[in-house]
């Protein structure tokens, strides 16, 4: 596998886990080489769509991580709005069901065509890693988290979802079950030189790519490094080494 450096940079998603636009701006400016930035619930709830415009004004792509979960019609509407904002990728909960996922895909296609916008990559979230098996039983999901992840991932695939968010430990199994086309996005990444912080089941960037991830979500090891640009460059180097032909 041979990839050029720009393709590798597009595999790294920087988590904008900050409270407001000023802080987001600082991160955007500290990482001129990073291509994709993840806007989650905290920042989006604080600032609304103007933060999406901010990211785009720097010529970067948006990963809108709102983990949509509602009736099909409502999720379809939210997806249409996201397409109008020109987001590059967005998340929805696969436990919203087959119909919800299908409607979301249809809505994305319809709006992208109507507005002449790029079609975003719709990513399915399976089981939140914060839930233990006992939590799953408590909410009436009988199975253990491993089988529940697989079950929901297959359902997402059936609906036509093109990508999944999963923990690094799930990459291999999902890749084996769903084949090479499904895009796999994984957080829980820690380079050897960074602290684990609250992340428990971590992998290095190189390991996650070798296991089959397409995109890595990385926050604090880069955004809170003394020299963020240098930290980003180190991750790029690590990925280059990991995907070099043997
Ligand atoms: O700073 P750090 O690299 O831990 O950030 C990881 C990002 O990925 C955060 O935005 C976090 O919410 C997200 N995430 C995660 N684990 C999951 C799902 C999402 O760390 N299971």
Give me the CATH superfamily. Aldolase class I
What is the rounded distance between the termini?
9 Å
CATH fold type: TIM Barrel
Strand content: 15-25%
Q: What Rg do the Cα atoms give? A: 18 Å
The geometry reads as globular
Structure in words:
- The protein has 246 residues and is an alpha/beta fold.
- It has helices at 5-9, 21-30, 41-47, 50-57, 72-84, 98-115, 133-138, 145-159, 171-178, 205-211, 220-223, 228-243; strands spanning 12-15, 36-40, 61-68, 89-93, 121-125, 163-165, 183-186, 215-218.
- The protein has an eight-stranded parallel beta barrel, surrounded by seven helices.
How would you describe this structure in keywords?
single chain, about 250 residues, alpha/beta, TIM Barrel, 8-stranded parallel beta barrel, 12 helices, 8 strands, about 50% helix, globular, binds cytidine-5'-monophosphate
Q: How would you briefly describe this protein structure?
A:
With 246 residues, the protein is of the alpha/beta class. Helix content is 48%, strand content 15%.
